[in-house]
């Protein structure tokens, strides 16, 4: 197997190759003045299994297109198998039709992956694992739940008797699992999303977190609405410290700065999206474990 890191996950791709002692393929990439991507795969791929590593965080369409272009070209060059490692999978949140005419972007995106020649798609904490696994049934898929790995890493990073808080009822599975692994208590907040404006509000409530160390945990931060509202509410209840942790960090730098300004002690995310403005936890090992178990 050879590893081809895409422009959005260069460090992660190189790290996976290093950990598995696998050869790296070079990629020449540049952007034309109109924004389109130029790509050239450098190296021999004939009859080889190739794993592309590329996240699809913003700009999603560009990152997605780059994967499709690479997969299709690899197959055209004679690669025997194309594995796409997409640590954050975009367009997964619209996964069912709620209103007439609504686009189910998850299914369309999955079909695009399959039709571009991808044999296997590996992602991390998909938005809805069940739907992910049953979509595009002819493509092999793996959804890695990295909560157990992250819980241990967070404990190694800082060992405190946290009260774990989930921002909404949808976070319950992740929160319960983290709480079980760390043997710590948890609560979840109540969130409401206006179906038309998509505005998030977290229900005002008294939280018993005075003088406690709090770990606020979410799977994803995007607009920051959920995190900001939850953080404000927690801070109102006077914890002694507050760490915000999320798996997929899609937030803009402005949003991250706004959160820092609220008085959070730390913001941490995994490197499913590479960033240099906050602390990240490397998840390469979870991917290499799967590749080793299945293919090497
Ligand atoms: C929601 O259901 C997720 O777990 C996240 O809380 C949500 O997607 C975060 O999005 P945003 O940052 O836009 O509020």
Fraction in beta strands: 25-35%
Number of domains: 2
Shape from CA axes?
globular
Low-confidence stretches: none
Largest sheet: 6 strands, parallel
Total beta strand runs:
15
How large, in whole angstroms, is the Cα Rg?
20 Å
- Examine the coordinates and then state which fold CATH places here, giving the name of the CATH topology of the largest domain: Rossmann fold
Sequence of strands across the biggest β-sheet: 9-8-12-13-14-15
Which percent range fits the helix content?
Answer: 25-40%
The helix/strand series, from N terminus to C terminus, equals EHEEEHEHEHEHEHEEEEHEHEEH
Structural class: alpha/beta
CATH architecture of the largest domain: 3-Layer(aba) Sandwich
Multimeric status of the protein: single chain
Q: Care to describe what's here?
A:
The chain has 296 residues and is of the alpha/beta class. The chain has two domains: 2-144, Rossmann fold, CATH 3.40.50; 147-280, 3-Layer(aba) Sandwich (Rossmann fold). It contains nine helices and 15 strands. The chain has a six-stranded parallel beta sheet, sandwiched between helices. A five-stranded parallel beta sheet has the order 1-4-5-6-7, with helices on both faces. Strands 2-3 form a two-stranded antiparallel ribbon. α2 links the parallel β4 and β5. The longest helix is centred in the N-terminal third of the chain and has 17 residues, at 60-76. The termini are close together. Ribose-5-phosphate (R5P) binds next to β12 and α7. Ribose-5-phosphate binds at residues 167-168, 170-171, 200, 218-227.
